[in-house]
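Task: sequence design from structure.
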């Protein structure tokens, strides 16, 4: 099992220090949020991280096409891939907090898929076809810089987006959490998309994502993760309730109705609305042994890597505890 970290950096120094520490602890990758009003620019921060590390992979979780044209994203990641000697990973979404908070609209799924195809074709040296215009001649335009290809992952929760991933992408950042039944459901949707495109679904990496806290006091760990994981769960259920068991639907609906997206991320819901089902689905939280047991269940189900987000107030503490007490035990 490979472990990847997701986080938000407020300074470049914070991003670099965390990347160096994560590399030393044995994490495979660091994914930085792309939220231009709250965090440092991830592309510049990732370049600095690449210069200060040797093995850790670097990606976005996630950037979007609302503010960045697909050709610019392809260029930026090809450049980062050169700087990092092949360690770049593209993480894309249709647009969420950074988009809605500034009054913009997420990219329509049909346009998102077209943009993914542009990025993929540029990074695989197939180029893109440009129509003839008054100012130019038409033809195929290729990306001429950087190190290519670069793997493309998209954040996906709903069935339509999962099928898009199956048709176009190298991997999925699976925001539906760590529930094994939901994982099986998502695998089926990805396979449907892969079949439509004549691709082998086994070649599409699935990276479940969620929140973590590890502590010798398991109850304290679960208490500390509740407020932060609420945002992840709310985001998921805006796209689909299809994966909620019948007996849990009422609790999830109460949770969704009580959620206040206008508040700061750690204050958007009373933790009492976070049911045990939501806690188990969207987090790995508890003692080191409890966390290891859950990781091994995912590994037995065929998961090769997971994306983990510690709560911001205790980010470095949880990252270190996971690296020192969970990662070594998972290799035993």
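Answer:
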């Amino acid at each position: 099992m490979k472990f990847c970290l997701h986080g938000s950096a407020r300074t470049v120094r914070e991003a670099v220090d965390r990347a160096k520490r994560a590399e030393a602890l044995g994490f495979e990758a660091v994914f930085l949020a792309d939220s231009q009003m709250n965090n440092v620019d991830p592309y510049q921060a990732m370049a600095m991280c690449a210069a200060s590390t040797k093995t850790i992979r670097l990606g976005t979780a996630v950037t979007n096409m609302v503010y960045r044209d697909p050709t610019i994203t392809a260029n930026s990641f090809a450049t980062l891939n050169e700087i990092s000697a092949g360690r770049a990973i593209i993480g894309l979404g249709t647009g969420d907090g950074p988009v809605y908070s500034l009054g913009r609209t997420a990219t329509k799924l049909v346009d998102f898929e077209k943009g993914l195809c542009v990025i993929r074709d540029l990074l695989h040296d197939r180029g893109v076809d440009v129509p003839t215009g008054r100012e130019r001649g038409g033809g195929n335009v290729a990306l001429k810089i950087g190190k290519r290809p670069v793997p493309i992952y998209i954040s996906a929760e709903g069935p339509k987006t999962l099928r898009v991933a199956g048709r176009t992408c190298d991997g999925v950042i699976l925001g539906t959490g760590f529930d094994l039944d939901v994982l099986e459901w998502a695998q089926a949707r990805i396979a449907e998309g892969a079949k439509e495109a004549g691709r082998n679904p086994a070649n599409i990496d699935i990276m479940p994502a969620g929140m973590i806290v590890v502590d010798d006091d398991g109850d304290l760990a679960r208490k500390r993760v509740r407020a932060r994981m609420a945002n992840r769960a709310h985001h998921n259920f805006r796209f689909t309730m299809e994966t909620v068991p019948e007996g849990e639907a009422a609790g999830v609906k109460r949770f969704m109705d009580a959620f206040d997206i206008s508040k700061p991320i750690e204050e958007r819901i009373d933790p009492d609305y976070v049911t045990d089902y939501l806690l188990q689905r969207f987090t790995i939280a508890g003692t080191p042994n409890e966390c290891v047991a859950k990781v091994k269940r995912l590994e037995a189900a065929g998961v090769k890597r997971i994306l983990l987000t510690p709560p911001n107030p205790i980010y470095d503490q949880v990252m270190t505890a996971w690296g020192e007490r969970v990662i070594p035990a998972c290799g035993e």
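Residues 2-130+140-214+282-330 form a domain with the TIM Barrel fold (CATH 3.20.20.30).
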